[in-house]
Amino acid sequence: MLIKKNLSERDICTKFITPAIEQSGWKDKFLEEVSFTDGRIYVRGKMTARGKAKRADYILYYKPNIPVAIVEAKDNRHALGDGMQQALEYARILDIPCVFASNGDGFLFHDRTATDDSIEQELSLDEFPSPDELWRRYKQYKGIETSAEELVSLQDYYVDTAGRRPRYYQQIAINRTVEAIAKGQNRMLLVMATGTGKTYTAFQIIYRLWKSGFKKRILFLADRTALIDQTRRGDFRHFRDKMTVIRKKVLTVDGKEQLVASRKRGIDATDKAYEIFLGLYQGLTNAEGLDAFRDFSPDFFDLIVVDECHRGSADDNSAWREILTYFRTATQIGLTATPKETADVSTSEYFGDPIYTYSLRQGIDDGFLAPYRVVRVGLNVDLEGWRPERGKKDKRGLPVEDRIYNRLDFDRNIVVEERRMLVAQKITEFLKGHNRFMKTIVFCVDIEHAEGMRSALARQNADLVRQNSKYVMRITGDEEEGKRELDNFINPEERYPVIACTSKLMTTGVDAQTCQLIVLDTNIQSMTEFKQIIGRGTRINEEFGKLYFTIFDFRNVTDLFADPAFDGDPVRVKLVDDDGDVANIEDEEEADTAPLTDADTGDTLTPEPPKIRYLIDDADPLAQEDRKVFVNGIDVTVLNSRELIFDTDGKAVLVGLKDYTRDRFRQKFQSMDAFMTYWNATDRKQAIVQELTEQNVLLDSFIEAVDKDADLFDLICHVAFDQKPLTRKERAEQVKKRDYFARYGPAARAVLEALLDKYADEGIMLIEDVKVLQVRPFDQFGSPVEIVNKTFGGKIAYLRAVRELEQEIYSASA
């Protein structure tokens, strides 16, 4: 006889929940075990591990990509509604109105559309609602009222033959936008972090509105040729012969370009035969008032999508706004990763509050965007300033103005050649310690600075430049050769260029999937620009081993992390002093023996090295050079002036690390006895590490700074209570001298001695984890199961022996 409570969750789904759903008319309209995130990437040193993906047991779709319900299943040993809290959290994330939990006996139904006490009710297995019933509730939830609105809202997505499906957040953005437009909304804003597929999202929105016939002529507006080209060749290629790029037609007369068109503005009748238009706003406007866009009637376009709308359309006086105002009858959608809100410019004032926001933090947490670490390098001339000695002359023999120059001056008003060489040296040190063919973007003050850094990096990497002169290149708006190499730089299949020196050209719209190093040697005060630059590194490419990236900050730009508007903190901030080895900055992290845990599940993760597939702008730079003062013969070094500590909230603490850590310990433990009681009462020391970390005790940083060989217990006693610390090896030797293992038989003694050696090498947290029995030298004693059951008589006895070994380790007085 089948005993229901003995069945697994999967059996409950197969025998009870799935049949109940199918019998209500949902056959072929639902998916099971839907993983809707990829799992956050955790970084330790040069190794990474993915956390657990979020997974829904069932998602029900009225039509493909239009989810209306979610079901969370549990086995029959759980109560009917035990899965409801998790289901509600997933429903909130996925924007789904109808939520069910089940243990196989029936369903608990939570209706997010309800306005009265009917918000939750129990249903029998044969009472599961039909598709039409849940679609009715979905329309109520979304405010879809008329048949015309429903028709547009149900328009199919474009189905890619390659099998590409929108991610959950893209699905939400697409559905909300299409539904809002169907209901008559004419201005809307989508905020999606760089690297999360804004262009693909825009394509699906445009496709559904166009295919439904609701919007017949559509303009996609951008401000960079690279963006238009990427869009045309990428997601929008599916529009085929229905799409064109608007280009002004010109005729050269007496060496001057003149517009050629029916109304002398550059657009002729053949351009108007298309349905999907891609336009560069510079190509639609003219300084002399001969605006090409006026060759179209004001009501020509039904829909305008503005890419990177923060850059111009939010400004009342911009050329963008002039175009949007002219086509004011068209529905207008703004896309951006970084909405701009200043005294003069407001993205939301024009487009309205975002209809949906998917942030950098969300992208990193979901595992769709790469996490990053920050390396701060403070140079003496930047932090202390530089004042020329009496009679100092520049390279042209002219006297240098006597004043204090700081980081805002360097490379804008005055060029210190030694500073540039030191920056290039530090970048090269990092590449030599990692991968010299790691794609790198160096953001500079202006075009002249970009050229100067190209030259300095070429000298630092002369061996590779001799092999291929394109190893390092300047890619700026004024230089055609460099611009031609931009596509090669962002192409993962192309090895060269490796290092791109730029100023403004590459801040946005560059899909650099394999960029693993971003160097900030320019002064950035705009949060919008800062987020855009970070976005150059956030894309993931697992095939080429790109799972995280590093930011090198020479100008304290990462102070912007403290801004409340910033929403994606780094995994680590490392301050490099005069002796700092940037080639091996990860070694300190890899020496950390504490288990790496998934923040969502608490599961222990095993980091591994990425699997790498290796491969066999703005103004006249001469004019910039003329207005700068060039000096040399200056002593420029990496300055060790102060210790800058960041707590776990990302806030800077301007005190010594030891003092800061002592204060944090003393807040929790008033005396040595209090700490000893706490330490001995805690079965797993990892729990202590987690609790202290949550309270902003910077254990990792402190261990790195004081003594990586000392035991965690001793370090805490040393810093908080001035006790002399012992190393792990010293503690292990004291245990051996006391002949502690004599009480055990030969087999158990061998295992415990090996555990003690592991403790001496790697720390207490390692031996607390039963998984340690899977590695050498324990494999010579048998399998983990054999060691636990045969040698110690079961798991409880084994854990008791480990616990007693820990007590023996710490019975030695510090």
Q: Can you offer a commentary on this structure?
A:
Helix 5 (168-182) packs parallel to helix 6 (198-211) and helix 26 runs antiparallel to helix 27 (746-762). Helices cover 35% and strands 17% of the residues. Strand 15 (303-306), helix 9 and strand 16 (331-336) form a beta-alpha-beta unit. The protein has five domains: 4-142, tt1808, chain A (Alpha-Beta Complex); 147-361, Rossmann fold (3-Layer(aba) Sandwich); 370-589 and 617-631, P-loop containing nucleotide triphosphate hydrolases (Rossmann fold), CATH 3.40.50; 645-725, no CATH class; 729-810. The strands form eight sheets. A seven-stranded parallel β-sheet has the order 11-14-10-15-16-9-17. The model is unreliable at 261-266, 614-623 and 640-657 (pLDDT under 50). The chain has 814 residues and is an alpha/beta fold. The chain has 30 helices and 30 strands. Keywords: Endonuclease, Hydrolase, Nuclease.
What value does the Rg take, in angstroms?
31 Å
Biggest sheet: strand arrangement = 11-14-10-15-16-9-17
Question: What's the number of extended β-strand segments?
Answer: 30
Strand portion, in percent?
Answer: 15-25%
**Which descriptor suits the 3D outline?**
flat
